[in-house]
Amino acid sequence: MSSGLSRVLWWTGSRRFAGSLLKNRCIREIRTQVPLAARCCRHRAIPPPRDLRGTGPVVRLRPSFIVSVGYRYGFHSGTVCGSFSTVDQKMPEATKPFQRLPRTVKPVHYALKLVPDFKTLTFKGSVSVHLEVLESTDEILLNALELNLESAQLKGDKLFIPKEIQLSHSEETATFKFDTHIAPGSYTLDVTFNGDINDKMKGLYRSKYVNEKGEVAYAFVTQFEATDARRCFPCWDEPALKATFDISLVVPKDRVALSNMPVKQQESQGELIKYNFERTPIMSTYLVAAVIGEYDYVEDTSSDGVLVRVYTPKGKKEQGLFALEVASKVLPYYKEYFNIAYPLPKIDLIAIADFSAGAMENWGLVTYRETALLVDPQNTSAVSKQWIALVVGHELAHQWFGNLVTMEWWTHLWLNEGYASFVEFLCVNYLFPEYDIWTQFVNDSYIRALELDSLNNSHPIEVPVGNPSEIDEIFDDISYNKGASVIRMLHHYIGDEDFRKGMHNYLTKHQYKNTFTEDLWEALEEASKKPVAEVMSSWTLQMGFPEVSVTSKSAADGKGVTLMLTQSKFTADGSPPPKDYRWMIPISISTSKNPQKEVVSTVLKEKNTEIFVPEVTDSDWIKVNPDTIGFYRTRYPPELLEKFVPAIRDETLPPLDRLGLIDDLFAMVKAGHTGTVEVLKFLRAFEDETDYNVWSSVNNILSRLSQLLGNTPYREGYDNYQKQLLSKVYRRLGWNSRPNETHLDTLLRSLILGRMALLNDESTIKEARTRLREHLAGTRVLPADLRSACYKTVLRAGGDPEFFTLLRLYRSSDLHEEKDRISRSFGATTDEHLLTRVLEFAMSDEVRSQDRVFVIISVSLNSSGRDLAWEFFKTNWSILKEQFSGLFLLSRLVKFLTENFTSEERAAEIETFFQEHSAPGTERTVQQSLETVRLNAKWLQRDGAAIAKYFS
């Protein structure tokens, strides 16, 4: 999915925060090529020393191995394996065991028929499953949830009628019990069933919209990832249990019906039409899809012969043209990159009015939020258009990586999401080089992953998951963004040619099958002849990342410098790690002699090493981790850091290094290794900065400090500091675009005005009011890129009249992006009475269920609304839980409503609330937020007096 969820983005100005749905779950079915005794590390299988690799028998634990929610495998604690050590995670204690489906029965093919009723919002269905009984059994166990099973029979050489059908809501299973044992062989299981078409955005659900006639109407949509196919039809709902599917849909004649494959034939049945779709390739249940509704479409055929269609709401098909262009170019690009053709005859992309994620990669029928697919030339901002290109690239990457080759179980979710999150940037860089998208990757993916992974309550990229309730928590910045970041590091380490060769070998060898992470390492190692598994396992199986501390000593003749590098685990609170953690770190170094060239490239295996850098003097800067590719923090002493300042001011230090340098320094501030005042002073070197991506990194820091200082007496001093820092770039850019401006200039203007919108700057307020007035009067259209900043500025400086003006604008717009912009700006007001109205508005019928979370979050991100939003959340907990339970949206809401508090008292209150109110699927998020709140409290206590003095 995008977030991979794909991802749902939270926009603040032109910055995006992914409510990245990241995925990752599972008990791990351990498979390795080494003796079981070598796999001795707690929580996960860790590669042994290289002299053990390749020896011993294949060891496979039964897939039905029971593992508790608390991930207690019972391995030895604190054991050092290979080149790194394990991590003890703070996780909820075990609640109940979980067991995968038994392997006594295997599905081979499903013939599925669905008959939805648009009047009663219910559906009837039948499924005929050709299956193989592998071991004699008197019962068949599969997945089913919230379905009424009407009848069932098993056909072989004779007919078997179940004596009992047991349904377990807690286990999400159906058990067909027979009065005799079924011998091994081929059988057909026929089941008829019915159910409700829900409004929960999972399973088979209804999406509400107003059609061209002004009538309320519904589309019926499926969303099955991760474990919701079982809500639509009885099935073996695990990714490894692949099968083929013949799908039939019986729908009204005036509705479009879509599924994974093209229509094979159709037949009229009175006022209904039955569509029979062609047989799918062998695939996992979570990729099965159907959409029924009123849609227009635009189409094209890609250069490699694939029919591409983009489906839009009626009357809006021109808004699908941009996505159509991207998709039509992406398919042949991926065909060439993977050296494997897209295996289906068609690909449909469709905009759904109600959709919890950003998008979903159903094979041949990719579903999207409207804001992730539709482009209105006059009303879509540059940053939204850019995001749409990334999301389309992400989901189409899944057609190979995830759909053609699928992870064996949710533990390996990162194989889907991390890889697609990397490849989306590859394809967008190919299609739109002017986006400078790889530099944006560092801000939008790499840095966010570092921030989360520095917490004690992070998790490894591969984390054991058992019960389905755990799955949504792992659709996060670790699975998506850390996964993408370590793949980017690996790509750099082995080179593009070997990377592509390895990917082709991996996809070819395992097509239509399921894999483990080790399979990927094996393919890349074979292609590159480098120790990929040994290097990468320290990044995927171990929580956290290293800090590389740098000191230097000049050569006696002054013609070189020896760097002393030391690695240790970076911790968000700055405390010494409890064990001797170790990574295999690809290290690169550049210098001021040639900033674009790596003068050193090596792998740091030990805790300490020395590297001699020739041809540099005491006055030259030396940059560790040029282009910010290695997934680690670099810690410089003040004397080395100071040497970068002139190169920052004159921009001879490349942009990726400028933004990486300041972000590393800020991380050291948060961890208490240096004072906040030091970073405030250092930021002044960026006053003349011209690069959007560098300003984006600076903006991240300013935003984080705003959250920390929002309710302190020195907030006004900090706002004045920000205005001074931004003054030059603000004056240079202004509000009006200039001829021949670049895409990045557009993004930068939006970013800077978005920052100024929160600083009560009189000239910004005056200009925003004028432009909004002209926009409403129709005398001058406000460019889409400026609207968010303009709306927030006017709301923050105004009162009831401004709020109701924008509310009317919200109601009059039929573009989802514009509604999002306005509703997520409402939280900018400082009037507590209006903030209360915004929270009430969020829960009204005027806001789609999928968007309510983000309107509430907009209030919580405002220091004036933080307490109000938390109290509102507690008061409405039962409603919110019911509405969003089982969706990533609930954990996103918990995260943003809690993590910005700055006192131990509030942390204790949050902790008590969630101890008393169960929130399945948010346990890890709660622990991460509590840790962050306590870090904020210590940070403010540690540096508050010095900050106050600096601003006085």
Describe this protein's structure.
The chain is α+β, with helices and mostly antiparallel strands. The protein has 26 helices and 37 strands. The chain has an eight-stranded mixed sheet with strand order 13-12-16-10-9-19-22-21, with no helix packed on it. A five-stranded mixed sheet has the order 24-25-26-28-27, covered by helices on one side. β6 and β7 form a beta hairpin. The radius of gyration is 28 Å and the shape is globular. Mean pLDDT is 88; it is low at 3-95.
Summary keywords:
952 residues; alpha+beta; eight-stranded mixed β-sheet; five-stranded mixed β-sheet; 37 strands
Task: Describe the structure in brief.
With 952 residues, the protein is an alpha+beta fold.
Q: What is the straight-line distance between the termini?
A: 49 Å
SSE-based structural type: alpha+beta
Per DSSP, the total helix count is 26
Major β-sheet profile: 8 strands, mixed
Instruction: Indicate the radius of gyration in whole angstroms.
Output: 28 Å
Shape: globular
Query: Hey, roughly how much beta strand do the residues contain?
Result: 15-25%
The neighbouring-strand order within the major sheet is 13-12-16-10-9-19-22-21
Helix proportion = 25-40%
Structure summary, number of beta strands = 37
The pLDDT mean sits at 88
Low-confidence blocks of residues: 3-95
SSE arrangement:
Blueprint: E1 9-12, E2 15-18, E3 31-32, E4 59-60, E5 67-68, E6 80-81, E7 84-85, E8 97-98, E9 105-117, E10 122-133, E11 137-143, E12 148-155, E13 159-160, E14 164-168, E15 173-182, E16 185-196, E17 203-210, E18 216-223, E19 244-252, E20 256-259, E21 263-269, E22 272-277, E23 290-293, E24 295-301, E25 307-313, H1 321-338, E26 346-352, E27 359-360, E28 365-369, H2 382-398, E29 405-407, H3 413-431, H4 437-453, H5 478-494, H6 496-510, E30 513-515, H7 517-528, H8 532-540, E31 546-554, E32 560-569, E33 585-591, E34 600-604, E35 608-614, E36 622-624, E37 633-635, H9 638-642, H10 645-649, H11 655-670, H12 676-683, H13 692-709, H14 715-733, H15 743-756, H16 762-777, H17 784-797, H18 800-812, H19 816-823, H20 832-842, H21 849-860, H22 866-875, H23 877-884, H24 888-898, H25 904-916, H26 923-951
